[in-house]
Amino acid sequence: MDLDKYIQIFITESEEYLQQIYDILLGLEKGGANDDLTTQLMGNIHSIKGMSRTVGFSDIEKLCHHLEDFVQKLPENQTVDTQTVNLLFEGFNLVGKMIQNVKSGSSQEIPFHPFLDKLKTAPYSPSPSSSVTSSISDVPSLKEASHVRVKIETLNNMFNIIGEALLCHNQIQTISNAFASRILKMALFQMKRMIKELHLQITVARMTPVKILTDNIARTIRNVSGSAGKEISFKVIGEEIEMDRSIIEGLEVPLMHIVRNTIDHGIETPQLRKERSKPPKGAITLTINRTKETAVIKVEDDGNGMDTELIKQKAIKKGIISPEEGENLTPKNILMLVCAPNFSTAEEVTETSGRGVGMNIVKKKIEVLGGNIAIHSQNGVGSRIVLKIPLTLAIMPVFLINVDSRFFAIPVNKVISNIMILPEEISLHNQKESCMVKKNRVPLYRLRKLLKLKPAIQNDNQYLSVVITEASDQRAGFIVDNFLGQQDVVVRSLKPPLNKIKTFSGITLLGNGESALLLNVDALDIEQKNNHFSLSS
Question: Where are the alpha helices (DSSP H) in 387-511?
Answer without folding.
Answer: 447-450
